[in-house]
Specification:
alpha/beta; seven-stranded mixed β-sheet; six-stranded mixed β-sheet
Length: 255
């Protein structure tokens, strides 16, 4: 089984670029399941019902999110009604939605877990403890994790903690693709960060002059999404259906 994980989609420009390439990519790489991090898919941060539906219509099977999950109030009801739109499972129980889903593909089921790190991020339930609790309830043989976190040390520690217990752990959030894709000793595929789907000439998808202004002046700046040529960052995890172990990880960058 080939599972494609796509890095944070930024704004409508990233959504459009994904739609223009994803159908061909799925055919070319024989993709069985597509997971897209969509927490920045709406212009101006967060996600909306419109941006989420656009991702599903473009070929996503599951949409994950992160620290911007609830930036847009109009999305709250969608988290409760859409089984395959996830927010990090270690949000407080009172938050809308859930952080784990099972995709029934007929011949096999695939679990998708969304969690958020706590290093340099908001104070949340420990992702280690949250993962333990969810896995203890029983999950499909093939289960993958979108770990939305800032620190590579936390991401790698978390992946090693889950090695052999899940099929793959892929990091999101930093919008910068890492070159450390690998299969850990007990069969869990890993990459620290998938990267970003959005404008190339940008700082994390934002117009560079605006981020520079923010860094230099320390004053509030209204960020705007950059324009121009885009890229898709992601990774393909080839998983053995009989064991749930990852066989290989292929890092992708499409321009």
């Amino acid at each position: 089984m080939n599972i494609l994980a796509i890095g944070d989609v930024v704004g409508s420009i990233g959504c459009r670029f994904l739609r223009s390439h994803l159908p061909t990519l799925k055919k070319l790489k024989a993709i069985d399941l597509v997971i897209v991090n969509g927490e920045n898919s709406a212009d101006g941060n967060g996600l909306t019902p419109v941006s989420v539906q656009y991702l599903f219509d473009s070929g996503a099977d599951v949409v994950t999110s992160g620290n911007h999950s609830f930036r847009r109030r109009e999305s709250y009801d969608l988290y409760d009604s859409c089984e395959t739109l996830l927010r990090p499972a270690n949000f407080p129980p009172s938050a809308p939605g859930k952080g784990f889903c099972v995709v029934d593909m007929g011949r096999i089921q695939v679990g998708v877990l969304n969690l958020m790190g706590v290093v340099y991020m908001e104070s949340m339930e420990s992702p280690f403890d949250c993962a333990d609790r969810i896995l203890a309830k029983g999950v499909p043989k093939i289960t993958v994790v979108d770990f939305h976190a800032e620190a590579t040390g936390e991401k790698r520690s978390f992946a090693w903690y889950l090695d052999g217990r899940v099929s793959a752990v892929f990091g999101t959030h930093t919008h910068v693709q890492t070159a450390d894709e690998c299969v850990l000793p007990k069969g869990t595929g890993y990459i620290s960060d998938l990267g970003m789907t959005g404008p190339i000439d940008s700082v994390l998808g934002v117009k560079p002059e605006l981020t520079i202004q923010k860094m230099r002046t320390k004053m509030p700046v209204r960020f705007a999404i950059a324009e121009g040529a885009c890229r898709i960052d992601g990774a393909i995890f080839s998983v053995d259906e009989s064991t749930g172990k990852t066989i290989s990880v292929e890092r992708l960058e499409i321009r």
